[in-house]
Amino acid sequence: VEIPAAWADIDGSPWESDGEELGPGISAAADLQTFDASWAEPGMFFIAFRDLGQEMSDTELLDIFEYSEECTFDERVDYADSIYTGFYDVWSNCGGEGTLLVILAAAPEARDHLALVGVQIVTDADLEALDRIFNSFIVNE
Questions:
Q1: Which neighbouring-strand residues pair with 49?
Q2: What is the pLDDT of residue 141?
Q3: What are the distances in angstroms from CA 87 to CA 10, 11, 47, 105?
Q4: Is the pLDDT of residue 52 over 80?
Q5: Cα separation of 45 and 33, whole Å?
Q6: For residue 25, which phi and psi values (nearest 5 degrees)?
């Protein structure tokens, strides 16, 4: 995935839940601690859930990543590129700060993994980052 140079605080650790590794991942922001703790910092996360594409639909995964207590749900949009198809959710006014959150769940045709990409957008420049991220993510297995 192509990450903006300003988002140089990067964590490439696998994603885990309850001590179980869910798949390879990457998070990036100018300040990951602030990104993780607030809606004021732009940044992104990307994870490839191994074998989840066979067990869960894109929309089922998106439904897990639900932010209605902190954001306003705007829409669910179809997504397709040359490798992945899926959907992304658009959440606005996150934390009452006007921050936009876009969460994408998509899989390749073989559905051997399910990719999840989240981008927190604070400024117009972050919209450009969203486009670059959506146009460059890929899982190499």
A1: 114
A2: 63
A3: 25, 25, 15, 6
A4: no
A5: 13
A6: -155, 170
What confidence tier does 18 reach under pLDDT thresholds 50, 70, 90? Answer: confident
As a whole number, mean pLDDT of residues 121-130 equals: 94
Burial 115-137 (b: 16+ CB within 10 A, else e): bbbbbbbbeeebeebbeebbeeb
- Given a contact cutoff of 8 angstroms between Cβ atoms, the answer to whether 107 and 84 are in contact is yes
Report the Cα 11 to chain-centroid distance in Å: 14
Reported as a single tens digit per residue, the pLDDT across 69-86 is 999 999 999 999 999 999
- 3-state SS string for 31-99: CHHHHHHCCCCCEEEEEEEECHHHHCCHHHHHHHCCCCCCCEEEEEEEEECCCEEEEEEEEEEECCCCE
pLDDT reported for residue 109: 92
Q: Which two tokens stand for residue 17?
A: 């839940």
How far is residue 60 CA from its own chain's centroid?
A: 15
